[in-house]
Records
---
Amino acid sequence: MLVDVTGTPDFTARPKVELHVHLDCSLTRRALHRLGNPIGEAEFRRVFTAPERCDSLMDYLRAIGPSCEALQTAPALAIAMDELLRALADDGVIYAEIRFAPHTHQRGGLGLDQVMAAVTEGLAEGEAATGIKAGLLLCALRDYPPDENLKVIELAHRWRDRGVVGVDLAGDEAGHPAAANRRVFDRAHELSLPVTAHAGEAAGPDSLREVMALIAPARIGHGVRAIESDDLLAEIKARNLHLEVCPSSNIQVGVFGDYASHPVDRMSRRGLSLSINTDARTVAPLTLSLEYRRLSAAFGWQTGEFLAHNLEAVRHAFLPEEAKAGLGARLIEGWGG
């Protein structure tokens, strides 16, 4: 158990925003049932979840394999997205940005635009069924050739008015520096695509500095190892970079030894812009409501902290200002702010 949440409030009914959740790490058992796989709960957890403590980020990434294998057809992608939105709604999420790497869903013969058609079909179905809103972030992968990643940028541009809200740099941070993908994200900026990038998880401050200098994201996925450098923390704050923090995920992959040593509370107290996210709802397994209970138990976070960080998530969401205003009003009403 990462942290004992006994006696903490149930946050399920509270409205929430999630900016960092991976589709292929969040395949639900209901989706598999709809696809004809009657897998039971115990077998589902054995196959699709990672150990509570992994030896490394790469061990964690290997646990994603079974989910990715299951998401190689158009029906699977559509149903997985639909069911993820339903799970988000059950968790009280009112807006989410869901990310995935289109290239990893082509083993069954789908073209990139066919992948997008399936995912956006599921997105539309899930939004209609639940009333929540979501946007898509397309991931370029550090270990893929830059020419292949450029295709992801062009794909995001083609689908921008059909669900895509931005692009991401993801993958093996420690083994693949960001420099190889500089021209990929130069192209994203040329197309005015909003950019986030994974950094400061499997590697430290130098990796963050490289991403900030060469990729120029508006947000950083994780970013928690910035805590190792006071100068870097000050720069992140001065540049108003938003950190998509995923505490339980960081502990699961061994970035920090336990919840008490995770820097999210220290970063919050220093005034950094950050949001709380699950990263992987199935591989973890985790809900945002459970993550909030852990933060409440470990650091004494209450309504004020949760509302503030949800409002920061909205402020840095890749959305038009009018949509942000509506979400902010719902958060304030729902948290009693």
---
Amino acid sequence: MFRNKIIVAGSGGQGALRVGQMIAYAALNEDLEATWLPSYGAEMRGGTANCSVIITDGEIGYPMLSMADYCIIMNDASLEKFEKSVYPGGTLILDSSMVSRPVGRKDLRTFYVPADKIAEEEGNPRGANMVLLGAYVAAAGSVSLEAVYTNIDHSFTGSKAKYAESNKRLVKRGYDLIAAQPQE
């Protein structure tokens, strides 16, 4: 049975919860089972924000998790809190534009992604989370780019529709960055 346990963590306003939600919806688009559980700090913007996602082709008996296969980290505080929550042999994906210290563990597959820098280059400074989403898709292989793109089209409608194509480009940049690296 296939199962991915994912933690996405950052500060409020960085889009950590959106990334987790996008992963869960992409899994549902691919006929997988998914849960998404958000957790907020005292304040939304600037406070801590993280979520846990489980995707599987089986049943989800318990939606909470204390350990993850994949962890997407958007800042130093999140690395400090969640580095120990990844199973040995698991994967860390970090925004190297925002995380200032290296990962201390040697038993993890780690990808340093300059997500903020890439988002700035693309003219979408709030899109670093989409770069990290693409990096996860490439590293995990559990959902397809097409499922993520479908979700973007459904999420960015009305006055936000103008951001859909930019966000797809950012997802693709993150995906390509990881896909180009040797996989262990």
---
Amino acid sequence: MMRVDATLAVEFREAMANLCAPVTVVGVLDDERAHGTTVSAVMSLSMTPPLIAVALADTSDTLALIRRTGAFSINVLSAAQASIAMSLATKGVDKFADIGWHRCAGTPRVADCAAWLPCTVADDLPGGDHRIIVGAVADASIDPGASPLTYHRRTFGTHVAH
């Protein structure tokens, strides 16, 4: 039987803070205007075919736009882009106004990101208070010299090989 109480919610949140997570911007175009949000709940799902999964809150404006347009991008931020992550983590009308980006394959591509993956929606699944969007990856572009931005214990950082 699953324990559901306020203590478990706090313990779960603390346990998840111990996971080192990628920092991405999930972007979507609507009438040539970029929209998006910062997301750490992103994972590769399949290599053949290439699929990616991203979890977005049921209340997410970005989720509503992805459902309407059927396309989105995953922008893996570089270690130098923590300010972009913070800017896009908040609610706002024009969050991309001060961020370098361009349209590429019908989706927003954040300038100087470590990797970019344009996707079309392959599935939309329930996940508690979130939706799990499965994206069919249409292309992949990386900057081999960029270190990825990560999030661990509520702090931005990057991966260092040992």
